[in-house]
Amino acid sequence: MKNSLLKLVLAAALLTTASLAVGTANAFEMQTLEDERTNLHNFVGNGQWTVVMLWSANCKACEEQKPLLQAFHNKYNGSRARAIGIFTDGIENVDYMRKNIAHHGTNYTNLAALTDVFHWQFKQETGKDYSITPTYLLYAPDGTLSGVKSGKLKFELLEQILSEE
Length: 165
Fold this sequence. Notes:
The chain has helices at 2-14, 60-76, 94-104, 118-126, 155-163; strands at residues 29-31, 37-39, 49-55, 81-87, 109-113, 135-139, 145-150.
């Protein structure tokens, strides 16, 4: 009980600028780097926390956060957590996405948003209108959405959540 309360307090601190939402990733249809359709739901849950960064081209804050997200993913992938990127500029710009991923040496999963339905999907998932990048979605190990935060993320708070598990 004490650990659950602490996790809830830490999640609230992590997501100070966001409202908490509960749901699953069923609404998010995406495209892989291999040009295949998939659903974000296929990448969340399975006993791991999942941090999803929504990013776009020309987003300076996104570029600053990518090395931190990569370090987080390298440290926890395969154990307690993983990272996923969603490129919000869509499948029309997937060549830019591929070049950016190669440039950063990113090895966490990245998916491309379907721009014609992305804003609707985000609202269905979070109950909020999508506004800026980076935006983060935090999914609990059971696949439920634990929170949403727009703007830069302090990864130390994520590590605190994981250390209390």
